[in-house]
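dumping this here before i forget
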Amino acid sequence: RIRREVGKDVPIVMISAYDISEVEDEARAAGVNGFLPKPLYRSSVYSVIKAVLEHKEQPPFDGEEKPAGKALEGLRLLMAEDNALNQEIAATLLRMSGALVDCVEDGRRALDTFLTSKPGDYDAILMDVQMPVMDGHEATRCIRASEHPQAHTIPIIATTANAFSDDVSAALASGMNAHVAKPLDVAQLCKILADCIHRAGV
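structure:
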């Protein structure tokens, strides 16, 4: 009704304590521009409102990918990968797709880097599962249990050579949002990243 009365100029942000993904499509069709999960944090409220105000002139996300080669334009990613060659290849491909990528070599460093980051520094985390010092599952659980403003909202995607259903279930149970098997399919990864980031309201 607000959209019918005032048009598309006023951004609308939906606030909910429930799983926003269940109503996201209907909400976006009704004219919602962004989403905020409860409990609310001042920094996350500021970040979402700032984002929708800056992009209110752009059409809402319609599920289509950006032009080839720039599917991740402007996104900043934190990638945890202990294999130096895999890390270099993945980071290069992601950067070619427009992303800014910070790399760490184990789950402990991923956790520490995220905890010391400011809200909005990272749009998503790519988390290898089998790593020394701290594995990806434990790092994800620690991130989700932390007091960082993005602890419950930042998308975390598992990247692992294990692609059996039990591995996917374990990744999701630890708090990850999605699972991508190695070797990485960049087109698939870009789509999953875009979907997860938009579900998170980034």
